[in-house]
């Protein structure tokens, strides 16, 4: 009660507001923002079905286990590139450098130290992450064209080193005689590729889950802010250089894991893992599947490898032409309209009367 008038005081209504509507508190706004941020990491029912089918595919489709293994490896490689391309906007043409580092690290570890696949995978991830941490300085300065040339140069340097150090890497003949031990001490790698496909698919699932938690965390939100406007991100206090170095290192580690899977499941590592076409193919995969969402690399890898396998069996010499034609149509028509061709025909909206 007011001492002067004896009437109760009325609550203040904020400008532009109306009485009877509760004004949300700061805590409620922050909680709502956190829910929206973390909601992207929640799994949906169809995702459980999808991954269960993927894990069971080497046994359900035993005759296609080798192509399933390739799809899992390429999908993991594309997933690693999507972390820096889709979430930070950094284009790299030398991502095969980390893929090759992982392949040679796993193969050399199996040949010279011990043939355990999981230990070799860990060594490959650590070596590729160390290389990525060292090379992260190359993406912090310069324009996009400069980054393209520098990242491409790193891959070419490593390929030349692997060629010259033939006493260690086998040179142009590749690193031969790589024999892997049984997985978990029980499961021998067979010629049909079922154990290899299950191994690669399991590693893909584990690293996919970790990458999903990574991009849907507050750190991942800062990466999107850097992608959208780097100067604005710096202005609000985000340490841009440190964040870019971290995500580049993480992406290099995932690419190294993909290279390790290739070397372990094939028992061979050659200069081909450093070739430019590796980086170009994974870029095309992300064009097919889309960037900025982790399933883009997985879907793109499935479409790309199945098309490559089917077309090359029909025209071994000209399969690249048909894939190139498909990419041109994809760009001209659009991914959504290509998937849903019935949306090409749209009814004309009636003209409104003047």
Notes on the protein architecture:
With 354 residues, the protein is mostly helical. The chain has one domain: ABC transporter involved in vitamin B12 uptake, BtuC (Orthogonal Bundle). Helix content is 66%, strand content 0%. It contains 15 helices and no strands. α3 crosses α12 and α4 packs antiparallel against α5 (117-135). The chain is globular, with a radius of gyration of 25 Å. Mean pLDDT is 80; it is low at 1-11 and 13-21.
Task: Summarize the helices and strands and which ones pair or pack.
Layout: H1 26-39, H2 45-60, H3 65-85, H4 96-112, H5 117-135, H6 144-164, H7 166-169, H8 194-215, H9 218-228, H10 230-235, H11 240-266, H12 276-289, H13 295-314, H14 319-333, H15 335-339
Any descriptors?
0% strand, 15 helices, ABC transporter involved in vitamin B12 uptake, BtuC, single chain, mainly alpha, 66% helix, disordered N terminus, globular, 354 residues
